[in-house]
Write a structure and sequence with these properties.
Shape: elongated
Radius of gyration: 22 Å
Bound molecules: guanosine-5'-diphosphate-alpha-D-mannose, magnesium ion
Strand content: 25-35%
Oligomer: single chain
Number of strands: 31
CATH superfamily of the largest domain: Spore Coat Polysaccharide Biosynthesis Protein SpsA, Chain A
Helix content: 10-25%
């Protein structure tokens, strides 16, 4: 089975994590995010994937290679300028088979695509959209269906007045089964949105929805959702290969880690990481490889990526510390603050309220407090 995954977006809302690395390959728990998608698809028989790239394509290729490690043939297509979600698909046309999956490249999910494919075949659809329920559909594509699955309406980013009288919000999960015929509806060489131009035109012309009400589904594109996805993986709320690694107390500790303080799962501690005496790490913590945590530091519901150094007496909660960042003694990082790759924070600072420190920035001792 073939799949094309759209990975052209800039991921602006996840900066500074995405300042130097495109969203598909930023680390989530213990692997590049896209690997979760590829492992999930592989489990449903996908063995041929086309990645439709725009932003920083070589970084994606460097991280994922030819896919052989995952048992998938991976190919990359880079459009000359952003073509939009349908334009990007059209640009990959020469590589596509008669029937294929199309995916948004930012969803962490365990939707049963095999069942979606079966429904697609049974209905004879031209396109079948995977659907998941949400409470607030305003940031998504809202899909209206009738019994049997036929789509009767598609509203991308609906306004509040458009929601009147709808009792269940099923949104497009960014997981589509498509027949090649869909490509004939997309004009070549220009920017075309599949959500705003193609789906509405297909309503009543073979567009179906497959409701996956029990599946896990999350668009990881904001700091809060990146953390939610991290914790859902270690908590086992979504089925991923990470679960196989978690031992007693839902904790995975890689080789060469030195834990002098207390470490509580659910969580993952990477190879060569050191946690100092009197520190308390977890629950719900990911420490990358080669991370240093000083004495008496407390870390909870946080992600500290490869090679970062956290001083003594610090407090980290609900935050993300990028690779190679350095945090001085007694510094507090909380409330969705993000420290960019290689940034340096001095002693006695407080980073809070969603503050984002960009890669390489240096903050002197006591420079920021709330
Ligand atoms: N190659 C390429 N070229 N990829 C693109 C382009 C482009 O011009 N524009 C967007 N993408 C990729 C993004 O990288 C992302 O993986 C995917 O297409 C969807 O774009 P987003 O920018 O993340 O869209 P969204 O989250 O606001 O809305 C989409 O996803 C929702 C589910 O998360 C829509 O498809 C909604 O209908 C859907 O509900
Ligand atoms: Mg998105």
């Amino acid at each position: 089975m073939q799949a094309v995954i759209l990975v052209g977006g800039e991921g602006t809302r996840l900066r500074p994590l995405t300042s130097l690395h495109p969203k598909p390959v930023i680390q989530l728990v213990d692997r590049p995010f896209m690997v979760f998608m590829l492992e999930w698809l592989r489990g449903h028989g996908v063995d041929d994937v086309v990645l439709s790239c725009g932003f920083l394509p070589t970084k994606i290729e460097e991280a994922l290679g030819d896919g052989s490690a995952l048992g998938i043939r991976l190919r990359y297509v880079t459009e000359p300028e952003p073509r939009g979600t349908a334009g990007a698909l059209k640009y990959a046309e020469d590589l596509l088979e008669d029937r294929f999956l199309m995916l948004n490249g930012d969803v962490l999910t365990d939707v049963d695509v095999s069942a979606q494919l079966r429904q697609h075949e049974a209905t004879g659809a031209v396109g079948t959209l995977g659907l998941v329920p949400v409470e607030d559909p305003s940031a998504y594509g809202l899909v209206l269906t009738r019994d049997g699955g036929e789509v009767t309406g598609f509203l991308e980013k609906p306004g509040h007045d458009e929601l009147v009288g709808i009792d269940e919000y099923l949104i497009s999960a960014g997981i589509y089964v498509l027949e090649r015929a869909v490509l004939d509806r997309i004009e070549p060489d220009r920017n075309v949105s599949i959500e705003r131009e193609v789906w509405p035109a297909l309503v009543g012309n073979g567009l179906y929805g497959f409701a996956a009400r029990d599946a896990y589904w999350l668009d990881i594109g904001t700091p809060q959702r990146y953390l939610d996805g991290t914790f859902d993986i270690v908590d086992g709320n979504v089925r991923t290969a990470v679960l196989d690694r978690l031992g007693e107390g839902s904790l995975a500790v890689d080789g060469g880690a030195t834990l002098e303080g207390r470490v509580l799962g659910p969580g993952v501690v990477g190879a060569g990481t050191r946690v100092g005496t009197g520190s308390s790490v977890g629950p719900q913590v990911v420490l990358g490889r080669g991370v240093e945590v000083g004495r008496g530091t407390r870390i909870e519901r946080a992600v500290v990526l490869d090679g970062a150094v956290v001083g003594a007496g610090c407090e980290l909660r609900d935050c993300i510390v990028g690779p190679g960042a350095r945090i001085g003694d007694r510094t507090v990082v909380r409330e969705l603050a993000m420290v960019g790759e290689g940034a340096v924070v001095g002693d006695d600072c407080v980073l809070a309220a969603g503050m984002k420190l960009f890669p390489g920035v240096e903050l002197p001792d006591g420079a920021v407090k709330f």
